[in-house]
Amino acid sequence: MDCHPREPVLETVCLTAGYDDLPAVRELSLDVYAGEIVALFGPNGAGKTTTLLACVGLLPCMSGEVRWQGQAVSEPIHVLARAGLAYVPEGRSVTTGLSVRDNLRLGRGGVERAIEIFAELGPLLDRRAGLLSGGEQQMLALGRALASRPKALLVDDLSLGLAPLVVGRLLRALRSAAERDGLAVLLVEQHARQALSVADRWYLLKDGAL
Does position 1 have pLDDT exceeding 90, yes or no? Predict the structure, then answer.
């Protein structure tokens, strides 16, 4: 029996993408369905970030295609964001000179929804984001993305530089959103053990191919 009778929320079909004329991923086919977390593993330079950039429209496809809810897409990221695709890039994607409150206001979900997801941000609303710890900044970035109630979320190297307890907290928030809201998550993560604790499936990328 097919465990995925519906179309994937996000899918790549024979995707080749890279920089200038040099492909970093080749003939890559993967999919992510509603309500599941799919982990993408691989060594540095394997093409994981390239895959995410191509999926969100920040890097053009050399060949193949990205499909969003069954339809091939080539729209820029702001169009895909309005359609329900969210992206948390590698590093701390926050505006350090703004307060936590104002960073959350930049998102599509607002402040209250983000605080429901990460109550730890509540006492920090008036603090400049640049004064937060690395873990707090990542909660801010992830909370802002999740608050928008996206249909799919792509996350690049969530645990970079963070303590295991903080990483566990972030991963549990992703698992909760997948189960509660039917969120489809494509997660790039170096720490396989922790990622596998919440992932439903995984892919291994090596030298630009699965």
Answer: no
